[in-house]
TrEMBL record:
Record flagged with keyword DNA-binding: no
Keywords attached to this entry: Hydrolase
CDD domains per UniProt: 4HBT
InterPro entries xrefs: 4-hydroxybenzoyl-CoA_TE, HotDog_dom_sf
Pfam families: 4HBT_2
Protein name, entry field: 4-hydroxybenzoyl-CoA thioesterase
Domain of life: Bacteria
Signal sequence residues: none
PANTHER family: 4-HYDROXYBENZOYL-COA THIOESTERASE FAMILY MEMBER, ACYL-COA THIOESTER HYDROLASE YBGC
Length: 139
């Protein structure tokens, strides 16, 4: 299973007046982490567009469980992996650590999409390329 870890320092603008991270800011961090996961696996945004004909990997569902808050100046580690892959959809999991402690578990469902050849104004799901499946699942 391909896993990417990145360290993030909590910035002033991430926090609410109580000096804890305002929860939507985490979802922005998770979105960045998913993009970085694809890049580090060898599939840049340009590859997705030019090589595979995709226009994106939109999120169709997301949720998170928050265990430990973070504040301005804290360092967190976001560990991101694809948990499962279906025909065109896939499940992403982000485990956020504050030191050694699990602070957040977050989950995304995303879909590979491309322009519909029959109607380029519409989007349609696209099958997951086999080389991507192999890289992310290790099979």
């Amino acid at each position: 299973m391909f896993v990417h870890r990145r360290d993030v320092q909590i910035q002033w603008g991430d926090c609410d007046p109580a000096n804890i991270v305002y929860y939507p800011r985490y979802f922005s961090m998770f979105d960045d982490s998913t993009s970085v996961l694809f890049e580090k696996a060898g599939f840049s945004k340009q590859d997705l567009v030019h090589k595979y004909g995709l226009v994106g990997i939109p999120m169709v569902d997301t949720r998170a469980k928050f265990y430990i808050p973070s504040t301005h100046g804290d360092w967190i580690t976001i560990e991101t992996r694809i948990e499962s892959i279906k025909r065109s959809s896939f499940e992403v999991k982000h485990d956020v650590y504050k030191g050694e402690a699990l602070a957040i578990e977050a989950f995304e469902t995303r879909v590979l999409v491309r322009r519909d050849p029959a109607n380029p104004d519409k989007l349609k799901s696209a099958p997951f390329p086999s080389e991507m499946v192999a890289k992310f699942t290790g099979s």
